[in-house]
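new request in #modeling-help
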Amino acid sequence: MSHKVLKTHQYNPVNLALEETLFHTANGRIGVRANFEEGYDEGIVGIRGSYLNAFFDTHRIVHPEKLFGFPEIGEKILNVTDVQCIDVQIEGRKVTITPENVSEYSRAMDMGRGEASRSFTWTDGGKPLIKFDIRRLASFLRREVFALSYSVTAIEPVRFQLQSIVNGEVSNFFDPSDPRVAGEAYRTLIIDKSEIDGNRLTMESYTQQIGHRLFVQSDHRIITDTGRVEKPKSHMDSGVLALVWEAALTPGESITLEKISTFRDSRRFPDEDERCRDYWNGIDVPPYKVLAEEQVVYVEEFWEKAAVDIDGDDAAAANLNFNIYQLFQSTPSDNRAGIPAKGLSGEGYEGHYFWDTEIYMFPFLLYTRPEAARSILLFRHSTLPGAREQARILGHQRGAAYPWRTISGRECSAYYPSGSAQYHINADIAYAVIRYWEATEDDVFIRDFGAEILFETARIWLELGNFSDGRFHIHGVTGPDEYTCLVNDNYFTNQMARKNLQSAVDVYAWMDSHFPVELTRLSDTLKLDRAETQDWESAADRMYLPYDAVRNLNPQDESFLRKPMWDFSSTPPDNHPLLLHYHHMTLSRFQVCKQADTVLAYVLLNPPEKDSTIRKSFHYYEGVTTHDSSLSYAAFAILAARLGEPEKAYEYFSRTVSLDLNDTHGNTKDGIHAANMGGAWMAAVWGFGGFFPDGSLPTFRPVLPSKWKR
Amino acid sequence: MSHKVLKTHQYNPVNLALEETLFHTANGRIGVRANFEEGYDEGIVGIRGSYLNAFFDTHRIVHPEKLFGFPEIGEKILNVTDVQCIDVQIEGRKVTITPENVSEYSRAMDMGRGEASRSFTWTDGGKPLIKFDIRRLASFLRREVFALSYSVTAIEPVRFQLQSIVNGEVSNFFDPSDPRVAGEAYRTLIIDKSEIDGNRLTMESYTQQIGHRLFVQSDHRIITDTGRVEKPKSHMDSGVLALVWEAALTPGESITLEKISTFRDSRRFPDEDERCRDYWNGIDVPPYKVLAEEQVVYVEEFWEKAAVDIDGDDAAAANLNFNIYQLFQSTPSDNRAGIPAKGLSGEGYEGHYFWDTEIYMFPFLLYTRPEAARSILLFRHSTLPGAREQARILGHQRGAAYPWRTISGRECSAYYPSGSAQYHINADIAYAVIRYWEATEDDVFIRDFGAEILFETARIWLELGNFSDGRFHIHGVTGPDEYTCLVNDNYFTNQMARKNLQSAVDVYAWMDSHFPVELTRLSDTLKLDRAETQDWESAADRMYLPYDAVRNLNPQDESFLRKPMWDFSSTPPDNHPLLLHYHHMTLSRFQVCKQADTVLAYVLLNPPEKDSTIRKSFHYYEGVTTHDSSLSYAAFAILAARLGEPEKAYEYFSRTVSLDLNDTHGNTKDGIHAANMGGAWMAAVWGFGGFFPDGSLPTFRPVLPSKWKR
């Protein structure tokens, strides 16, 4: 892989589902998996999918034992109307690639141009017949637009047929054997209206449960050397619209079908009149070439700010830039969505937003595209009503409890011990708010949005925790490490809660001096008074942080070090990841961590601990962490670098940066691990770059692995 | 209510579902709810049901988020073939009781005779037409038999029709709004074969999923003064068999239909040839009168051993005897079943067995009918394979982990924090074993069954807990109090585990001296050696028992006293029971208990604590316990009596003993609270009677409330 092109020349059916993810095209709004337009050969299982960020339907969550407050409504990103389809017939025979009939195969994701491509030669009995050249992009300038250019060039004289399809009969992927993806088939879009008008196919649909509407339009253009193409025939058949062109080419002649599709949905354009949904209303649909040229300009501007060069380690730089590009193409711009755990590359985790966004992806955005970072925070602000509702469900009188997983803002986690119990998400969002302010000095954002988030998240801690023996304790929560649930005084949570409380106190004081009117208005709305902020301050000041003086360690939680160690030596290699092979209760009674927890707290905040404690804890947690979560390596990499262990840091960094490219977790077919990608960036910039955001001024103290020059 | 007859003279449609439970007839094998034979008036909702202990079908448990080890197969006791049905028509009009057409109504459960009865006069426009007299029993001598006697006596000349029905089209009750009963309709029995042969109706069915078979036979006899009854007509219609008699009576004449039904099932008679299922094979079906007479003898014998008299408090004695009778009629005798949480009176808790059996019901059996106590333990022994499987699922290499709720022995709990996490059930069963041995000196039972239970339950603790700082700690378990889940060092669990371990050590030593050959054989089977028993001993000796020296209290668990108190003053009365109105996480972060936990540990074991600690703890837990569980009052009553507070004990006892009779939990319609009934007996005998089973010799130190003379 060169610096900014991911490429493969090998057609290997086994890799196709993985490649669908790695080569997918997205723009933060639309994500289209890299399926073959013409489909796969029989027996090959792919996950054919197109997604619109935050476009979901609801479903009933049925609990076999339903207790109070367990969510009853789930949300799931939908596989939407398929505009990828282009069927080809050569001499009456349908084209699908098989090892026997393909040569000169290659596919690429040109991250410098924001465009994916695929080319191959179709052969018959070893004889090359026709050459294919296919390009696609999801436009960054026009977030509604997904464009395809499908070219064929004849090598031998050939008659063939191109059929462009808009398929509304789509459903989501499921696999009953894997708890990480949906367990059952899920009906999605109901088609409402279909139309064929010349070269335009349009289809309107709505989601079965919640009635979100979707308007999809595909415009077509045929470009030939000769003009010898027939006008298309069209047909319409229960959810499938098609245009069909017949052509006969002589050797050297080529024909290109351009298919420019737009997606508009009622979550973003709720007030629009039904008849005004044509994105191109009144203007000519631009040629693919124009869209591609716009795209390059936009993408180059991005790379100017974001590209990472590593002198002496081209491979690492290329991998890192791949990760950065994935984050880039997963990030929305409209305040109506967050970044799903899998970006828009697949259905894993149902298109939900987690704490990963603010902790792992946000730093990259903040320091490369602060306007995108702001958009993410505005989205979180817009979901405060759902977070307040969740706080009431969890028995809190005041404040907001951001949900563990959600699209709309409603808690969708069906298993609270490693879901809603992760109260730290409140502090994680507050952390992003305060980091954003520090980095951008965007006072208006804080005044109008940030303060409300900080206050509403901070006040939860006072109801959740309590003073006991002079210290503030937080009981019965789960930290980032999901192998130890529902614990008391989780170090990470308590540290982050302290930061949340301190930030709220600081911003309250700042508002008081700079925006007293706005503060009064907000305080009235929130029924907040100064006395409450004094409680915040005293909880922050007296926050209990577990520390074992004998061992000179920060225990992950108050009881962690009393538990026995996990016996890795008698754990069969096949039993990883542990959560797929051991009961949650089994894992909980050992010192074994899925991911960085205390280590992550050290990374994010200026730790009040002695250096020797941090160093000792780091090595301690290295010994008990499985890194079964993709979020883990990055935190270890950063802390290793900070502790002056660059080679160890490089080891962790390498695992981070290649996690999806090498499919080391074995589930990249379900989508990228977007947070890990942000983590890779953090490992490079926070770790080796020595960037440390905590404190009054960010600092840089680079620590490079021996291989790296600069 | 007299001492041994429960009676009502009021026909109140609102009470019928409750009365179905209170007046049900059972014999530990068969349980038949007290539905009206002829059905209810339109609009009255009852729960029509007949159950066979341990006769169940399986169903898939679908978890919205399925983690490793979550049970996927549930079990549910079935509502079996209905033999209660007798339809009556008077002058062509179907008889159902309404307030307008009934007079002289009464129903009774004669617990001295083991027989339920119902009588009323049917009127037309205020004019009495015909008198009904109905009796029913589930035979204790013949556990397969349920018998009905249905008599009518004419007051005016009348033509009428009696129709006896065997209805195989039955399904279980469901109510989607109540988490304590099943949430959805559940298909049960599939009818295989039906036959009408003279006065005999037979029906064979099998359970849809697991294929357990059921053979039901109803034999009929008509007894008249005059002989003027027609031969029956019969008809058979999709799952319904019927015999119909027509009769014309003159005033004073009567006619009685006896319907003697038998239930045989493949769980108990698996090898029987299909053609040999007639229970009466070769002998005459006895008249109802004979069955009733046998019944009286059996029941009188029971009362001789079990009846409680309370001089000075007839009402309490009557209530207590009602509870005792319910336990009596819920207890099986065939080693093939336990006592379901609701006895055989309803479908609540799906007919499952819990720890309640051994802790709350077993003492009554042990000291009144030790052979029944033995049978219960033999049943638990027979389910060791399921408990071993559950131990493997929970990550234990050795030993058995008895399931939280089960019929067959397989864990059926779909919510582990207040289910499988209650490891104390292992110790509870071990506790019953050792108490049985102490009370009966049944060495053979211990040698052949008890030792294996003790060893297999004990060894779990060594894998579950661990030594830390010189003490043995048990992490991440739930005690009896379900409002505080997954805690460390639960006082009850640790105390009971200690007893479990000590008992296992003692029995190992005893076997070694008395039955060395059997010990060797058992040790070989279990791969158990002496070294392991030394670990048991040292874990027992060094078991950590939480104690707060400053407050002089035993905390329920290690973190309990650090949490804030629940604010009862601002809890609306409608918000009880709390579990229906607060999230489990909310409850968990407060000092609030659903039920006796530490208090129960004091009750069961000779506590090593100072008297002042026990007294102080008792009062402390009084303040934080809601008694939302029916298991709570009894433990508080016993400890109050022991602490010399008889009036307080009486208060708790009163709530225990009348819980079902007064329907104080509002769900007695779903079945009796069998464990609470055992608790009522314990409150009287262990509490006021001052019986204390722990130690080398049981002791009696009676403490009577002022009202009680003797």
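bot summary: The first strand of chain B starts at residue 5 and ends at 8.
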